[in-house]
Amino acid sequence: MKATVILGLAAFPLATVHAADWPQFQGPDRTGVSQETGLIRSFGKKGPRILWDVKLEKGFGGCAIVGEEVYLVDRVLKEKDMLLCLDLKTGKEHWRYESPSEGEPSFPGSRSVPTVEEDAVYFVGSYGRVHCIDRKSHKARWTVKMADRYPDANTPNWGYAQCALVVGEIVFVTPFGSETGAAGWNKMTGAEVWKSGSIGDSHASPTVLQIGGEPHIALVSKSGKEGYVTGYRPQDGTILWQTQSYYNRIPIPIVTRVREDKLFVTGGYDCGSKMLSIKKSGARYELDELWAIEKGTQIHPPFVIDNHLYFLANENSNHKVAAKRKTGGLSCWDLEGKELWRTGNEPFMGRGGSIHADGMLIIQDGEKGVLRLVEPSPKGFKLLAEANVFESDLGKKHDLKFWSPMALSEGRLIMRGQDRLICVDLRK
Questions:
Q1: How far is CA 214 from CA 7, 11, 13, 123, 204, in A?
Q2: Closest to 354 in 3D by CA, of 410, 315, 396, 404
Q3: Is residue 191 classed exposed, middle or buried when 0-12, 13-18 and 19+ CB atoms within 10 A define those classes?
């Protein structure tokens, strides 16, 4: 299917962050890629050094790191959402902000990663309350519940899992209503700047892709049996492109920019993945399907490394049965849709998060929390190091749901294990 829309012409600057910071979901540019170097490539018999270990409520919310401060969203069951600010060196709590919250979604606990700017922190609660918290006063500048502003807003089945996206002066939010699908709010006041029509719902976070010399906010969503991949202009909400060529019944991973002219969309639930071309044609963008595969990654996005795709091909349908687990694990694909290798069940690695840094894939096992360092290569799986950093009982077969995204700053890796947060020292 082809989608054609009007091309936006104005470029829009993105927020500037320090090189060592991990200020939002998936790092500085939401790709899970770190520019850090000088990391260890082996652990030794005792494993890596654990700098600190903090007890949390159960949940899935990952961390952002700015300077020496770690920010994360935690949640007390059926009671409140909490923004915590911890010390990067010690894990000690500096301050917290609390917000009452009703009910509890399936798979209880926090969902999103906060977005940290110079003066404020933005986060979205499980039931759609968007917060802007002043970093100095630790008080709310504004809070808006999407259902209060948009009565048609529809909380997704497993709660709002979107991580706040700030582009310039705009906070991009997703009410997922029958009339209002997405909206842009002024980041200083919370006032609505623009809104767009219905796009169904999603558990995927929006991301920013640089295409045609300007930023595009990209989002995967679904409505009934129809799927949407949409690109918005940040400042006014103009739909720059949209296609229905990819459908996932529960979208979770973000859109991946492979090259200036290629986008990769993926997910679990046996909905597979597709490579899409995106090209400027006169004053328009055109999207076409290049190829499709049956495999996908259910929660976390893939990495594009030296013209190859790497992702954990693990999802609901293959993680419980040994014979099916052989179809999963870490897999490597060329950009024509050919699988070059996969680890299958040895190791499977579940649905955990990954970071690409210093020529390595840093992978948290989604079932047991085991930390692995892998050298990406199209020639095969190259394990550099592994350690049971959470001291999990590896004999148990059930999934312990270590699904949170990790964060990395100045060689210190933050990992979550439902009700624990640990800081692993990867510095030489």
A1: 10, 4, 8, 25, 22
A2: 404
A3: exposed
The string of pLDDT tens digits covering residues 42-101 is 999 999 999 999 999 999 999 999 999 999 999 999 999 999 999 999 999 999 999 998
pLDDT digits (tens, 9 = 90+) for 337-350: 999 999 999 999 99
The fold for domain 1-6+20-25+59-296 equals Methylamine Dehydrogenase; Chain H (2.130.10)
Q: Which two tokens stand for residue 277?
A: 């071309």
Quickly tell me which residue has 């290569």 as its tokens: 377
* Structural tokens at position 284: 């328009």
Structure tokens belonging to residue 421: 């947060």
Distances (CA, A) of 120 to 131, 135, 150, 247, 282: 10, 5, 24, 35, 40
* Ranges of each domain in the chain: 1-6+20-25+59-296, 300-402
- Phi, psi of 324, deg, nearest 5: -80, -30
For 344: left if phi > 0, alpha if psi spans -120 to 50, otherwise beta; the answer is left
